Amino acid sequence: xxxxxxxxxxxxxxxxxxxxxxxxxxxxxxxxxxxxxxxxxxxxxxxxxxxxxxxxxxxxxxxxxxxxxxxxxxxxxxxxxxxxxxxxxxxxxxxxxxxxxxxxxxxxxxxxxxxxxxxxxxxxxxxxxxxxxxxxxxxxxxxxxxxxxxxxxxxxxxxxxxxxxxxxxxxxxxxxxxxxxxxxxxxxxxxxxxxxxxxxxxxxxxxxxxxxxx
Length: 214
Fold this sequence. Notes:
Blueprint: H1 8-26, E1 31-32, H2 34-41, H3 45-53, E2 65-66, H4 67-77, E3 84-89, H5 93-99, H6 103-106, E4 109-116, E5 125-126, E6 129-133, H7 137-143, E7 148-151, H8 155-167, E8 172-175, E9 188-191, H9 194-213
Parallel strand pairs: 3-4, 3-7, 4-6, 7-8, 8-9
Antiparallel strand pairs: 1-2, 5-6
Helix pairs in contact: 1-4, 2-3
């Protein structure tokens, strides 16, 4: 049977569902209705039901959702029941901050390596992981079953490095470089443009101020 195509909008909401359900589970909540989840998340109950129906529904009429079960099932949909090895390319402030974020391991993302071309940084450690030179990148990716590469480097060098990553088996790229990447089909890219988010915030501030100055 052909797998149903799920919209990116639905996929984009799954991590938020997962986070809220995790908090409810930790608080000892055993079940919840779509209406109760709606009030918590500020998403309509019908939207929640539509989103979950893409994956089979999960709920029971008159009972609602079992929090533990739903949390685990969404985790599986997101692939969090598997381990993913990742490397960070770029050992500047952003790269180091990401390397020091310990919550990745809780979600199954294992920090395996960090690379930089600055000789002054090579040999230093970030949370027990030694920073290596760029000349070691390709062999390290091949030999250590690396799934994901995190790019925190200038856009001028990103394109060349991405080609090397793809040629050595990288399946996904978390891209903080300010450049759109062209990769083969089957290699997933998630772009994170920090300045775009800040400009969006600026727009919303200005719109709110204009509306309240009328």
